[in-house]
Design a protein that fits this description.
single chain, 5-stranded mixed sheet, mainly alpha
Length: 641
């Protein structure tokens, strides 16, 4: 008889222990995900997919990159080497890895606007998922859910995932690298560490040197926290760097091993060298005053931005509303997360995570602040660090609020919510873009702080949990509204500079007017249709349908059709290919007949040769109406002039 009560008592004790383990798992992050967690994650991912994919067929395709993607989808040579036109005569001024997913999508689905934008939606959703998994292993499911919500609600992330620039692929690969690094630091296994190096190398293919910014952080965190002796950790850190270097340099070595005649001329270079493209034109020349570093072509106003730099760039009126909503919370979390774990063993995973994400944030801020200029969307790479620190910080503050190790620890959570909510009000104050939400933020923050500060017999765990939820909502409601605004073309920024909300030059241009039709694939203007029809009708076996002055002139034609074009001067118009002698030879060999020049790009020896040896074609021959006159078509038949 006595065994039955003991059995019942044991069963009740087991149930309490199970509940306790589940509660501990919310903080520690170990164990099987609960049903609420799976449902919540699916909800966040669905919201991200809806936000990023809404109106996908009207996505704004980057004029230059979109032209290259269509060409890469129709030619193996252009795909492998990043050819700007289908013949792969000259490359784009970047490595092609960031555009391979887009080109593959266009190859599979056809030259549709939604096809070139689809990979970016998938990359954005995958980044949210990978960040959730990484933060969960580090700080628990509550922190992971907050981090996933924060990343989805970051305005620049939403705008970028609806555009067609490679920064989201860079961000995804770096988050994968961070997750692998934390796994290697926790387990001591070599394979995750090599995977980290591989992801960094692939990120290099997407955005070149920017991918290497985090290598010092990854190495430092591994050396400080990984198990094993010092020599073992140093040796494995060397393997991490070697793997990253090997994968990063694979395309560069492939280009070097290929005869120049069998690949495109590398844009942005005066010596046709891939290392100049990466380390000169896209590297050193962006810092300091050496515009021609390593043989690079000097940048122009079309290829370089001079804004958004200096130590205040992250909080200025344009960049701040895109990325900086969680900045006070993230900084506080990074500092206190490391401070509170000071007495823990060297391999403490919680401290490793704060060091990793804090280093990610600090290093990028330092580099962006000292560069010659940044597009605001560059800061999207900081979003995972801010989201992870926000989620991990709130989870840590919540744990300390419930069971503080020091009396003042209990006050950190309400203080962090109040500080971050007030900061959000300041970020929106300049534009008052969503002024109707400001009272909501104030009410949520006040309710959360009041409930968290209240102590008494009636303040149970359920009430405190709702107070935390209200605080999270207060922190995220304004950035969410800005992020959702990117679904409106008026508040989505330009195709070349995706931004959310009423900031940037594109909003100033469109304010008070109907939004212009966005750039897309296979959607030529009436003028471009007429020009293509004229050139096609007068083509007599020439390899190139047209020679153009710079990519600016070729872009709309390359997005509309898949005919080879000879792009003289590359993106800036200053790349010395083809030179005047090469152009003369091509004309003499009947490989090109027509050339189009523009007043929007600088003159070069090749364009001077066209003006001196070719005859103008009257716009009335192919245009139905008068244009602004910034483009001039020339007929370069050897018998002409």
């Amino acid at each position: 008889m006595a065994t039955v009560p003991r059995a019942r008592e044991t069963g009740a004790h087991r149930r309490r222990a199970d509940r306790s383990r589940r509660s501990d798992a919310l903080d520690a992050g170990w164990g099987t995900p609960a049903r609420w967690e799976r449902v919540s994650l699916l909800g966040v991912l669905a919201a991200a997919a809806l936000l990023y994919g809404w109106g996908l067929k009207h996505a704004a395709v980057h004029p230059y990159y979109g032209a290259a993607v269509r060409s890469m989808a129709t030619s193996r040579r252009a795909f492998l080497f990043g050819g700007l036109d289908p013949s792969g005569t000259i490359s784009i001024d970047k490595t092609p890895g960031g555009f391979w997913p887009d080109a593959a999508s266009v190859w599979i689905f056809g030259p549709h606007t939604w096809a070139v934008a689809l990979p970016h939606v998938l990359e954005g959703v995958l980044t949210t998922y990978v960040l959730h998994r990484t933060v969960r292993a580090w700080a628990g499911p509550v922190a992971a859910l907050i981090a996933a919500l924060a990343l989805t609600a970051t305005p620049v992330t939403a705008a970028l995932d609806r555009a067609t620039v490679p920064d989201e692929l860079l961000t995804l690969l770096l988050v994968l690298a961070a997750g692998a690094l934390l796994t290697a630091a926790r387990s001591g296994r070599l394979l995750p560490l090599l995977a980290c190096g591989m992801w960094v190398g692939l990120a290099f293919q997407a955005k070149m040197l920017q991918a290497w910014l985090l290598l010092p952080v990854f190495v430092a965190v591994y050396l400080l926290t990984a198990p094993g002796g010092a020599l073992r950790r140093v040796g494995r850190a060397v393997l991490l760097g070697a793997t990253a270097l090997a994968v990063s340099s694979s395309w560069l070595l492939l280009v070097l091993a290929t005869r120049p005649a069998d690949r495109p001329y590398l844009d942005g270079t005066t010596n046709n060298n891939p290392f100049t493209l990466v380390f000169g034109y896209n590297g050193i020349s962006r810092f300091g005053g050496d515009a021609g570093a390593l043989g690079a072509v000097p940048g122009t106003s079309a290829s370089r931005t001079t804004g958004n730099t200096g130590w205040g760039m992250l909080v200025n009126h344009t960049v701040g509303p895109q990325i900086a909503w969680l900045l006070p919370l993230a900084v506080l979390a990074a500092l206190l997360g490391v401070l509170w774990r000071a007495g823990q063993p060297r391999g403490d995973l919680a401290r490793a995570g704060f060091l990793l994400w804090g280093g990610w944030l600090a290093l990028h801020v330092a580099v962006f602040s000292t560069s010659n200029g940044n597009h605001a969307y560059y800061t999207a790479v900081i979003a995972p660090a801010l989201a992870a620190l926000g989620g991990g910080g709130l989870a840590t503050f919540w744990r300390e609020h419930r069971a503080p190790r020091a009396a003042w620890h209990r006050a950190v959570l309400p203080a962090a919510i109040a500080l971050t909510s007030g900061w959000a009000l300041l970020l929106d104050a300049h534009t008052l873009f969503v002024a109707w939400l400001l009272p909501v933020v104030v009410m949520l923050a006040l309710c959360s702080v009041a409930a968290l500060c209240r102590r008494g017999p009636r303040t149970g765990s359920r009430q405190r949990a709702w107070a935390l939820a209200a605080g999270v909502a207060a922190v995220l409601v304004l950035p969410t509204a800005w992020a959702v605004s990117s679904t409106d073309p008026l508040y989505a920024g330009a195709a070349t500079s995706p931004l959310a909300g009423p900031v940037g030059g594109n909003y100033a241009d469109l304010h008070g007017h109907e939004p212009t039709s966005s750039t897309g694939l296979s959607t030529p203007s009436a003028r471009d249709k007429a020009l293509l029809a004229y050139l096609t009708a007068h083509r007599r076996g020439e390899k190139y349908l047209l020679a153009t002055q710079a990519a600016y002139t070729a872009e709309p034609l390359l997005r509309a059709a898949s005919d080879p074009l000879l792009v003289m001067g590359g993106f800036t118009g200053l790349t010395p290919f083809p030179n005047a002698a090469q152009l003369s030879t091509l004309v003499g060999e009947h490989q090109v007949r027509y050339a189009m020049l523009t007043t929007q790009r600088p003159s070069t020896p090749a364009t001077t040769w066209v003006e001196g040896h070719c005859s103008r074609v009257s716009p009335r021959a192919y245009e139905e109406r008068r244009t602004d006159g910034s483009f001039t078509l020339y007929d370069c038949r050897p018998t002409a002039g």
